[in-house]
Design a protein that fits this description.
Elements: H1 7-24, H2 28-43, E1 62-68, E2 75-81, E3 96-102, E4 105-113, E5 116-125, E6 130-133, E7 141-145, E8 152-158, E9 167-170, E10 176-179
Antiparallel strand pairs: 1-2, 2-8, 3-6, 3-8, 4-5, 4-7, 9-10
Helix pairs in contact: 1-2
This protein binds fe (ii) ion (FE2).
Residues 90, 92, 141, 143 line the site of fe (ii) ion.
Length: 196
């Protein structure tokens, strides 16, 4: 039996976000402020994410692409964190918004100080909350599941096809290594049907 999902919620978000990115015409502050409102509305109700996009793996956190704008102006990704799972210290190089759909996650910001990667702030994003990342507002962090006994899921929006962007991870002494994350899924969810 097909999942009973309110996929209309995601379609509405994508339509509004696409219109915002067109209207903003590169005004990042406007995208981050109005986009945060749209993402907050999306993660306020947990009835639309397909099960395949909520799937975790014991090998590590998952990055399920939900949608990528045809002009690659933005992408929307479901991140799934199992207990104990975390990213390396990394950057994004483009604007991003993170909305917590299930559970909670911890983000520790970093900056290079006296030849070491030093933590700057430590935040826990709770269900329903939204936070921004960008080279202009702080772009280097490490993210982990803040729940010890269950998966956490956050919905990320980035100002590019993030799975194809050349980015960096940072060793404790600040040494950069280039990486391209790709995506965990080989196929996209069908969100365009009648449901919702
Ligand atoms: Fe990140």
């Amino acid at each position: 039996m097909a999942e009973q999902l309110n996929t209309g919620r995601l379609r509405h978000f994508l339509s509004e976000l696409s219109a915002l990115v067109s209207r903003a015409d590169g005004d990042e502050a406007l995208i981050l402020s109005d986009g945060a409102d749209l993402l907050r509305e999306l993660v306020a109700v947990d009835d639309w994410l397909p099960a395949a996009s909520a799937q975790g793996r014991p090998q590590g956190y998952q990055q399920h692409l939900l949608y990528c704008d045809p002009q690659e102006r933005f992408s929307v990704v479901s991140f799934v964190w199992g207990p104990g799972q975390e990213t390396p210290v990394h950057d994004h190089t483009v604007w991003g918004l993170v909305g917590q759909l299930r559970g909670s996650e911890r983000s520790i910001g970093y900056e290079l100080r006296d030849g070491r990667m030093a933590p700057t702030d430590n935040e826990v994003l709770k269900t329903g909350e939204v936070v921004a990342v960008s080279p202009r507002v702080g772009d280097i962090h490490k993210v982990s599941n803040a729940e010890i006994d269950r998966d956490s899921i956050s919905i990320h929006v980035y100002g590019a096809n993030i799975g194809a962007v050349r980015r960096h991870v940072f060793a404790p002494d600040g040494t950069e290594s280039t990486f391209i994350s790709g995506y965990s899924n080989a196929t996209l969810p069908n969100i365009w049907g009648m449901a919702g």
